[in-house]
Specification:
Layout lengths: L1 H5 L4 E3 L5 E4 L2 E7 L3 H5 L9 E5 L3 H11 L3 E2 L9 E5 L5 H15 L2 H10 L4
Antiparallel strand pairs: 1-2, 2-3, 3-4, 4-6, 5-6
Length: about 120
């Protein structure tokens, strides 16, 4: 996780917490699932859940309807551009892509454009 987040300009971990933000705007954070969250799922995730900001609701829907293994949602986030991922089931490359996309929604557009230009081949 640290290798992914360290590569994105301005993305900082909140001291003492498993959450990352840009200028106070959340990108990804550890989400402790409450009993009512678990009741809404078919089964508990295999590992820890990470909430990640996504570009829009269409992306959220695509991710949670099967385009990414380990992506799911709970009622609390159904009206927000956020998706949850099971860290035991999501691949490292997919996680990196999700966090990068989330970062791009929160970081200054000039920073995103510069970073994307420099990292296009990665």
């Amino acid at each position: 996780m640290e290798r992914i987040t360290a590569s994105l300009p301005g993305l900082e971990q909140t001291p003492g917490k498993r959450e990352w933000q840009v200028r106070g705007r959340p990108v990804a954070w550890h989400r402790v699932l409450q009993p009512h969250d678990l009741d809404a799922l078919e089964g508990p995730p295999a590992g820890d859940a990470l909430a990640v900001r996504v570009p829009d609701m269409a992306e959220q829907k695509a991710l949670t309807e099967g385009s990414v293994e380990g992506a799911f949602n709970i009622p609390h986030f159904t009206r927000r551009p956020i998706v949850l991922v099971d860290l035991e089931r999501v691949g490292r490359d997919t996680l990196a892509e999700l966090i990068t996309d989330g970062w791009a929604t929160q970081a200054p557009k000039s920073v995103v454009a510069r970073w994307m230009g420099e990292n296009q081949t990665r």
